[in-house]
UniProtKB/TrEMBL annotation:
Superkingdom: Eukaryota
Pfam families assigned: Fibrinogen_C
InterPro entries the UniProt entry points to: Fibrinogen-like_C, Fibrinogen_a/b/g_C_1, Fibrinogen_a/b/g_C_dom, Fibrinogen_C-term_domain
Protein name: Fibrinogen C-terminal domain-containing protein
Domain Fibrinogen C-terminal: 1-173
Organism annotation: Helobdella robusta
An example Gene Ontology CC term for this record: extracellular space
Length: 173
């Protein structure tokens, strides 16, 4: 598995403009590989995605998408994920709540590039770059909190998860 995103503490803000998200940033504790690097790795559409979230109560949630890839920068690096297997719920393609699901083909947004489908400007409101549809059910790049708060949560149907640490990894199929 190849690490593409990790949050282990709040020392590094993920509330950044387009260029750092495109090029990558971070250290061994808090890391974003970079949209261009992820696109280059996954453009053959032969990768899977694993999302790991450890909540404040010590529960580990692991979800896998059997198909994962990004589109090119000219389309704002849209996310494509399908074939969900896991415990937490399909946050990218929830037919019960399509507007809050990220969904296939949703472009990436940052505080200086509003590409979401909401009038709220989700990246600025939630403080982190992500594939927002209508401000989404999941954002692993939002404000990092050092204690549980119901203001910032991740909704993995049917659970509300208060994340403490998280990682996104990809693997060639």
């Amino acid at each position: 598995w190849t690490l593409i995103q990790q949050r282990t503490d709040g020392w590094l803000s993920f509330d950044k403009n387009w260029q750092p998200y495109r090029d990558g940033f971070g250290d061994s504790f808090n890391y974003w590989m970079g949209l261009e690097a992820i696109y280059q790795l996954t453009k053959g559409q032969n990768y899977r995605l694993q999302i790991q979230v450890l909540d404040f109560f010590g529960n580990l949630f692991i979800d896998i998408y059997e198909t994962f890839y990004l589109g090119p920068e000219s389309s704002n690096y849209p996310l494509f994920a399908s074939g969900w297997i896991g415990y937490s719920g399909d946050v990218f393609n929830d037919p019960a709540d399509p507007w809050r699901s990220t969904g296939d083909g949703i472009p990436f947004s940052t505080r200086d590039r509003d590409n979401d489908n909401s009038w709220l400007f989700c990246s600025y409101l939630i403080n982190g770059g992500w594939w927002y549809n209508d401000c989404t059910k999941i954002n692993l790049n939002g404000v990092y909190l050092i204690e549980p708060s119901f203001r910032y949560y991740f909704y993995f149907p049917p659970y509300y998860i208060l994340p403490f640490k998280c990682r996104m990894l990809i693997q060639q199929r």
